[in-house]
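Priority: low. Protein: VOC family protein. Input follows.
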Amino acid sequence: MTAIATFALVALDCPDPAALARFYSDITGWEIDREPPDGPPLEYEDGEQSDWVQLRAPGGGATIAFQQVEDYRPPEWPGAEHPQQAHLDFDVPDLDAAEERLLAIGARKHEFQPGKTFRVYLDPVGHPFCLVLS
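Result:
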C-alpha cells in the first residue's frame, strides 16, 4: 500500500513554547530548531516569542513541536473531565536513574502509578508522559 503522507511531528499546546522545548530537549538531547520550516524565528525583533517552536530530531525524522495557547489549561490525568488527549513515551534502560534526571529538570512524578515497568510524569505545564523500561 502506498502511503498518503509521512508522519512529521506531534505538537503540544502550552503557555511558553520555548520553555517547554528546552524541557523536552533536555530529555531527548535534540536541539531546539530556532527557525521551524515555514515559520517565524524563536524571537521577533521586538522581543516577543514565537508561538511555535520545535525540536530537530537526529536525521530529520519525526519530532516534537510546541504551540502557544492563550489561557492554557493542563490535562488532568487520570480522568475524563479534562483528558490528556495524547501522551509521549520515552524508553530508558534504568527507571530510577532517568527519574532522578527528570526531576532535576522540572518534571513531576504523578501520584498515580498504574504499572511496574513504566512511570508517569508531568512536564512543567502538566502534560503526562511516561518513562518505559526498555
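Residues 9-68 form one domain. Residues 35 and 108 are 29 Å apart (CA to CA).
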